[in-house]
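Try this one yourself first.
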């Protein structure tokens, strides 16, 4: 018997995430997901016609009302959700919050944006959206950095 998945193209979901730290706290979102309330960095899908840098700026603004400016690449990560058979390819950017639109409405799935220390994030009773949430904070705190031109668009 043949495996029907061998004839199905495998396409990872490409996403961006903004790692924003200010005064020892990280910008995060509480978001409603199909699995319930989760904590995540401002993150979302890369859309057609955007650069990854455009996408991370847009996602951060839509989810937190913060305008951010990418300063470095933190890394490129993958995670697989076996239950839904989805693989995510995450480009994480270290960003600086440069301004805030207090009256801006957030994306419908976002409950709120908040600032947490690494310890508060680690101890939060709200589950993380993926294992990459804490991994990105740990890599940031360890000093991991790549120049923005590490990822190029032709």
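Now uncover the answer:
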């Amino acid at each position: 018997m043949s495996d029907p998945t061998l004839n199905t193209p495998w396409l990872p979901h490409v996403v961006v995430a903004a790692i924003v730290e200010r005064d020892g706290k990280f910008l995060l979102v509480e978001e409603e997901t199909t699995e319930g309330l989760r904590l995540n960095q401002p993150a979302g899908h890369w859309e057609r016609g955007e650069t990854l840098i455009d996408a991370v700026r847009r996602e951060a603004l839509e989810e937190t009302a913060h305008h951010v400016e990418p300063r470095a690449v933190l890394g490129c990560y993958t995670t697989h959700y076996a239950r839904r058979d989805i693989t995510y390819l995450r480009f994480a950017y270290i960003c600086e919050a440069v301004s805030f639109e207090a009256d801006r409405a957030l994306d419908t799935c976002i409950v709120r944006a908040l600032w947490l220390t690494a310890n508060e994030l680690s101890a939060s009773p709200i589950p993380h959206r993926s294992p990459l949430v804490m991994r990105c904070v740990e890599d940031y705190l360890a000093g991991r950095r790549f120049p923005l031109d590490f990822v190029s668009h032709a």
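Discussion: The CA atoms of residues 77 and 135 lie 9 Å apart. Residues 11-148 form a domain with the Nucleoside Triphosphate Pyrophosphohydrolase fold (CATH 3.90.79.10).
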